[in-house]
Amino acid sequence: MTHLVYPGALHTRFHHALGAMHLMGLTIDVLRGKGHDITKEEEESANIAILLHDIGHGPFSHALEHSLVNGIKHEDISMLIMEKLNVQFDGKLTQAILIFKGQYHKNFLTQLVSGQLDLDRMDYLNRDSFFTGVSEGVISFDRIIKMLNVLDDNLVIEEKGIYSIENFLISRRLMYWQVYLHKTVIAGEQVLVKILKRAKELSSTGTILFATPALSHFLTNQISEDAFFKSDIHLAHFAQLDDQDIFASIKAWREHPDRILSRLCKMLTDRNLYKVEITNDAPDVDRVQRLKENTEQALNLTADEGRYFVFTDVISNRAYNAGDSNINILLKNNATIDIAKASDLSNLESLDKTVKKHILCYPRII
Amino acid sequence: MTHLVYPGALHTRFHHALGAMHLMGLTIDVLRGKGHDITKEEEESANIAILLHDIGHGPFSHALEHSLVNGIKHEDISMLIMEKLNVQFDGKLTQAILIFKGQYHKNFLTQLVSGQLDLDRMDYLNRDSFFTGVSEGVISFDRIIKMLNVLDDNLVIEEKGIYSIENFLISRRLMYWQVYLHKTVIAGEQVLVKILKRAKELSSTGTILFATPALSHFLTNQISEDAFFKSDIHLAHFAQLDDQDIFASIKAWREHPDRILSRLCKMLTDRNLYKVEITNDAPDVDRVQRLKENTEQALNLTADEGRYFVFTDVISNRAYNAGDSNINILLKNNATIDIAKASDLSNLESLDKTVKKHILCYPRII
Amino acid sequence: MTHLVYPGALHTRFHHALGAMHLMGLTIDVLRGKGHDITKEEEESANIAILLHDIGHGPFSHALEHSLVNGIKHEDISMLIMEKLNVQFDGKLTQAILIFKGQYHKNFLTQLVSGQLDLDRMDYLNRDSFFTGVSEGVISFDRIIKMLNVLDDNLVIEEKGIYSIENFLISRRLMYWQVYLHKTVIAGEQVLVKILKRAKELSSTGTILFATPALSHFLTNQISEDAFFKSDIHLAHFAQLDDQDIFASIKAWREHPDRILSRLCKMLTDRNLYKVEITNDAPDVDRVQRLKENTEQALNLTADEGRYFVFTDVISNRAYNAGDSNINILLKNNATIDIAKASDLSNLESLDKTVKKHILCYPRII
Amino acid sequence: MTHLVYPGALHTRFHHALGAMHLMGLTIDVLRGKGHDITKEEEESANIAILLHDIGHGPFSHALEHSLVNGIKHEDISMLIMEKLNVQFDGKLTQAILIFKGQYHKNFLTQLVSGQLDLDRMDYLNRDSFFTGVSEGVISFDRIIKMLNVLDDNLVIEEKGIYSIENFLISRRLMYWQVYLHKTVIAGEQVLVKILKRAKELSSTGTILFATPALSHFLTNQISEDAFFKSDIHLAHFAQLDDQDIFASIKAWREHPDRILSRLCKMLTDRNLYKVEITNDAPDVDRVQRLKENTEQALNLTADEGRYFVFTDVISNRAYNAGDSNINILLKNNATIDIAKASDLSNLESLDKTVKKHILCYPRII
Q1: Which of B70, B55, B57 is nearest to B100 (CA)?
Q2: Residues A305-356: tens digit of each pLDDT
Q3: Which of A259, A260, A241, A239 is nearest to A249 (CA)?
Q4: pLDDT tens sequence across B99-126
Q5: Which chain B residue is nearest to residue D165, measuring alpha carbons?
Q6: Number of domains observed in the structure of chain A
Q7: Which of residues 321-350 of B touch D (CB under 8 A)?
Q8: Which terminal Cβ of chain D has fewer Cβ within 10 Å, N or C?
Q9: Partners for D (CB, 8 Å, 3+ pairs)?
Q10: Which other chains touch chain B, taking contact as 3+ CB pairs less than 8 Å apart?
């Protein structure tokens, strides 16, 4: 939904997957150049693992997880798809799957796919900067990659890369607040979640809704996590589902007789989104109640229907998580030290704190 | 369909319209700075005219014009939409419409909207370069704009801008062959044209096809030019129609019982496009016939059905058209001279020649 | 000396002065657009003030201040030059001088020339990023300028610019450590300081040195602060002095009979610089003494001569100084708050701490 | 002298040499990937050859060749320096020298160093574009390199690279007229040539001139081509000579008693250059004579002295030279064809024509 604020941001997971795989190639060259043994087969497997790392994401992944495909984790779907591909390609993905799962004996390959310094993040920050024009997200991915090394089977950063890593962590934090959690982006995502919830609700009570075949499958069936992984039919439909199914159907629902659904769909397609307030403290309960009542009255809604238009939620972001998989700096004496300690300022330690914010959404009409 | 070759090229007419309007603002500042009187109202009108200059384009404009909405010119649809907006905005678009139609007394404003040096081209060349990564298309739009002037109510370029104009004309030519008329782009567009033709054909004989409401309208109705402009219902559906309607429907048609439609749709969505040959001379008739027969046999098609899979066509491009609206260079003595004469090389004169090429398309399976 | 590490960094104060003036123009447009009254004359004066803000810097400003022109502040020289220009231009710089001095009644104009958010910094961070290729220094100068406002005659940043300011402060900090205080840059500057000190020392004892006329003036005369500002002759020579005088003379001194001078000059021109160690704690006194003794022995030097080759010093950097001229954020309720408080993380507060580091320099030969 | 027009253009031959060597590395990777055998030693030699290909250029190479070091070709000096380095490095440059001279059996390596598609041009066009900001010079060097191939020991371009080559040739032509032969650049170079000629003239008649040691050597000695290559002393001084010697000396000559020398030096350092007229036809002889007489009168000069201030000359540029070393396109059938024939427009053939222009220079004072 970032394109609602930054119209150029129409880039896709396909670009990102190709880009991350490209960075994997550069990284493997660098690590080999530093004497680390990586076989041709491992290179291919690492490339496959990063190429497919996001394959299980549906369209508007987070919105969908909160509405149509509750409780089914995208990591598990990725895993399922890889295993199906592995059958199709005669077991050639076995090693890639081990790397993806963190079960391959060279742990640093897994860290390149998923970790504090993985090539996923190296790719998306610069890509998102490029397509949004938000220069705060620019990182020196090429320099960071050149500073990567492996010690005791763990990825480390050579000492002189420390400022580039600081910049990387800070950039990531800023991109969260400036782009990914921008007020208008949140407003768009929340409308979408509510649309899909309403559509599902209507479907479950027998109302007929126009929908593409793939979307129809998920509207009209209540699929448990168990069921999803038991029968191929669900994955087959899931694989066909993309943004176009959602958007094309929403456009058709503008004219649906259900007042709530049609209003929500018009809000999204006419870009007449919720007003969103982001605050450090929880919004005042009385005010929320008042907004809700006013909205219900203005739109002639029941209290139950009102929750589609006025509601609160919590968003959060932690730039750096100094847990098990922290970023280690390789000193010249071959010792390592956590980046938050190596930095000469305390600013990095503060990044380790989760920042939680409250959001309050309500329609602009009142 | 450029994104089939350059995945980043997902930018839209919306970006382009905003960008061209932005350039209009810069240009008006420059012209005012050179002493040309442009009122506030004219500025607003010129901005509106350029903002809306492409509004009548449907999705995949050229493909659609050859299949679903035959014989209805996008310029006329733009005009119709502007007139409807003019009613809605109490006549505030009247001047913009005059500029768009070339009927306003300051002709140079029309030339900025549509002409050899219009801001349409200034915007799209650099935008397409940016999103495709094809650096050959980069032009000095900012320098060209600074060199613009008006003489006798016509846009002219000051003498020292001549090399930037040369570069602009050459860049445009190169972008045509490298991007817009790239073999794979043509292949994608041709598959799309054939899909829409087939769908229309099936619809017209009563076959039921899944389609979004907007697309359905154009599949099931045969709308003449006259009819289109007489009843509001057609424009209402046209305005709702976008890429998502087309793509979402094509995805559904993969499973349609009609063998031709489903095969074509799979070709597009599986990126298994026609093989395209581009040649200076017309392809050998016998060879085309042979390809056709082989294809018909392989796919078990009638001769009539075969034309969906093997066919020829002509594409063309003329970089610079030294006709009525040529590019004039303003010399220091205030005389003007056509760019093709002003350039010290004959290379620009050669740009005035239309380059025609032949294309031959056939499936990869044979 | 940055070009020793980043060869592209040959940009000059001339570029920077033009760039900062360009940003002044943009900023004044923005502030006028927000309703702040800035007269044509004030615009010209602000432009002059920023154009000339660095005019008093000699070549290798800091190195020179520690060797040839001790105790003469570049701000005072800038002032002197502006006053001379003011005489030449019949008093047209009077207002610019007031702005430069902070004595003009619109204080925010002075803050644009010199303050926590001045256009000096806006320009040099991006310029240095561009020419060094260090992407960590990229800031959103254009967005920051659009977020500038004036409250009670003070520059403030509108609330939604807060992340861009965070990025600006962090970028500045990173550029210090990655570029301006890079080990090799320090090594180059230190060699230069020692060369100039030695040359001055030799000159003062009557040794004849090749030098361009301008450099010769400062080598052979001991000029006090008082004297500098009393007689025009000193400024006349100072104005002629630039990098070329220094470098051309150093090249000639490679062959000077003084062993110390010629060795230092060869170190610089052959890029055989000091080894520099940067540490948080002061280097071990015994080790420094040992290095000094070894060097003196290896090069056959007296203890007094040894200080040209082995020495320690302190460098420091404070990214943000929350003193009188702090950065204030303009909230929506028109209240202001210091950026360090407005940020949702404590990382900005940590930027307020001066970071001091110790350097130890010694020749690579030992 | 390009920096007189484009202040950012302070980049040096050092950058260019590094850049061209970098491109050599990329190219060798590409060619190896296409199955062409290039040994490690050949790679090193090709790298050395391109790194040193310009080493014999003095400062302001062309200006110097017309004044101080007449008749000594920079290619011969490059050769001499390589041979001296070869002695110093125990013959390790022997193969590089063969490649540089065109005597190595793999001719395509020589073509990469010097030819219509050499890496010299690939580097300087983009580099000059970057530092001047003239976007017309941007070429797809990376794409061109990927399209390079070798056939019968000659560099060829694969067919689909043809548009990138067209763009490269056109860009080069435009950069000549827009940058390298810009009026103000020519004016600066011509002043410099005249300064050095006058200085040499004065020196040869015994006038004492301030000069750095290296420059002094070439002012006070008349060195024939023979002499230059016979004694090491000349090369030793030549190797020390750079822009700083020239500029630092010119600054000193502003105050020289010779009226002509001091006037010329002030013209350069005060940026009060000749007025330059560039025309397709030779300037009118009578007008030139009149300008000369006026100038002589205004400045109180003899006719002989007048030639320093009013004069004509010829400049020329041929974008593409379809001679022995033409650019061959590799067709899919493995035949090759000259680019000028392969292009579908005649514009490339026109590039084969040398464009000659006349210049007329005179001071602005008259």
Answers
A1: B55
A2: 999 999 999 988 765 555 556 788 998 888 888 887 777 655 566 666 777 8
A3: A241
A4: 999 999 999 999 999 998 899 999 999 9
A5: B136
A6: 3
A7: 344-348, 350
A8: C
A9: B, C
A10: A, D
